[in-house]
Amino acid sequence: MKRFIVVRRVVVGGVLTACAVIAAGAAWRTRRVGPAEPVAARRAEPPAERPGAASGAASAADAVGAALGAAGATPMAATPETAAAEAGPEGAAAAAARALPWLRHFAATAVSAEASAQVVERMARWRAPDLDCSAAAYGGLAIAADVAPAPGSEEVLASYTQGVLVLDAAGRVIASAPAPGCQGSADDLDAIAVGDAQLGGPVIALAATGGGHRESSTWLGLYRVVNGAVVAIFAGVVEDRAGDRTRTGEVTLLPGALLYRAPSGERTLWVYRPEQHRYVQEALVLPPAA
């Protein structure tokens, strides 16, 4: 098939409305575990080479050609892991690559794929879990990292039925995102990481699944703490399942932009707009195979 680029401006308000829901957990997934049982990562580490030091949208456009070739690999099955077992930047990057195999060129500084019932209990001080949702029994994720403008590290707590809370060093909530309604029996949380997405500040990456036994989708969301809110700057489906069929996609980060390959195979270029606090779709880079 011939490759072509069709540049087009698009309206993404509807997409980002959905993203705000994802920021609250509408597509989070972990394995069903007890209070102290670690979550097993299901996929293997993809290539994670960082691009060069170039910055800005022009540099991002120059990087698209190289990213097209690197972005086509399909993630594979992985061995179990948790972030606690791997210390230091290299360990965090390796753990994030396994826990979030659909995300490329993300320089993680912290990652967690271990669900705990204690996270749900701690978050209940501010938000009660939805006990009518089966995901409430699966636990939540916690991670310590610098995600806010104030000096020092914060703690990010995430639960499918309680949303996201960011706590400062004194334990006060300084940013949050609401939780969505339940979607089905597959609703669950996968992993959370914090790192450098080449935007000049920390980014939270979160993966989750929503749906039922026969059909479900995994979303990958990127978020930043902005004015007391955990804001979704991008979200897209990176894996969908229908019966025995599974299709995967991926997100390749570029300087000031990203290349998104949907499970259908369609690839689109998104450029980050700081004044809007989000990525905006700029072009259809490669259509799906016929």
Low-confidence stretches: 1-58, 67-86
The largest β sheet comes out as:
6 strands, mixed
Order of helices and strands: EHHHEEHEEEEEEEEEEEEE
What fraction strand? 35-45%
**Number of helices, counting only DSSP H or I runs of 4 residues or more:** 4
Helix content: 10-25%
Quaternary organization: single chain
Secondary-structure blueprint:
Elements: E1 6-7, H1 13-23, H2 56-70, H3 88-99, E2 103-104, E3 107-112, H4 117-123, E4 141-145, E5 154-159, E6 163-167, E7 173-177, E8 188-196, E9 202-211, E10 215-226, E11 229-242, E12 245-248, E13 250-254, E14 257-261, E15 267-273, E16 278-286
Parallel strand pairs: 2-13
Antiparallel strand pairs: 1-16, 3-8, 4-5, 5-6, 6-7, 8-9, 9-10, 10-11, 11-12, 13-14, 14-15, 15-16
Can you describe what's shown?
This protein is 16% helix and 37% strand. The protein is α+β, with helices and mostly antiparallel strands. A hairpin with a 3-residue loop joins strand 9 (202-211) and strand 10. The longest helix is centred in the N-terminal third of the chain and has 15 residues, at 56-70. The protein is globular. The termini are close together. Mean pLDDT is 75; it is low at 1-58 and 67-86.
Q: Brief description of this entry?
A:
The chain has 290 residues and is of the alpha+beta class. The chain is built from four helices and 16 strands.
